[in-house]
Amino acid sequence: MSDDKPALGDGYCRVVNALAEGLASHPISSVQQRVVWAVIRMTYGWSKGKDRIAASQLAEITGLRRQQCSTALNQLIECGVIIREGGSRSAIKLNTKVEQWSFEKKATKGLINERVNTNHEKCSVNSNCGHSTNTICGHTKDKRQSNSLPSEDMSEQSSGRPPKSKPDSPAPKKKPNAVIQNESGRKWGEAIDLELAELMAATIDARLGQDAPASRSMLTWANDIRLMRERDNRQPEAIKALFAWTQQHHFWCANILSPAKLRSKWPTLAMQRNEDRKGASHGKGIAGNRADADAELTRQQTDLRYAIDNF
Known about the structure:
The chain is mainly alpha-helical.
């Protein structure tokens, strides 16, 4: 073999057959496929079963944007393809138990929108068995319809005319600038919303340590932050500043553990924070010291990392 061709001696990733067959037989998007292979490279490629992999590392390998990688990773975790052990910054690994994967099939004309069945005891590796002749995989709803047709369909069948096709319900359109969105389109968030949600999650998980939740809905968190921006007219800097203040407060640090809680308690938190600012500024006897105190508090309320380290 010539030097300009790849060789196994240069390194390779060993992938179990079940994982390879699962990736081949499930409706994984192209972006999700790229993220999966990046995770394979960072784990199996280094002879590891799991590893802590940041979104920036996935972006470097896949060539995608960091937010795209973060969104695809969360989707893969929800579908069961990837398992995260602990909080948002904990290690991840591939789930080789393919029967635990769960995807939504895309709605197509004339077919029922159903869950993909990956139970190998009932179906083959090919998951598209919803309308096969296999009686185990058949749909009881379809059988009931074939045995008892509505009177309108019976009259059309007896007259020899083809039955009228019912229009499919239109799929929800993706919201403008949305980087994360559910199927109904009711919950969604832009890049800044997801970024703030991830920042809050990382801050809370760092305080909780091993007691951090194994997983959380970043879609719900991003949606709550979007509502704060759009409905409550809160600026991203103000959201970040008030959250930073709560995480340094002896009482609110244990009570503000989600964007929804921050939103509901915003007036109370803002009032108490402003009172703390006034008390701190009046406690200095010299004008220069008061100015320094105000500048210090302003930085604490606008720079989350600084507030966490110095408040």
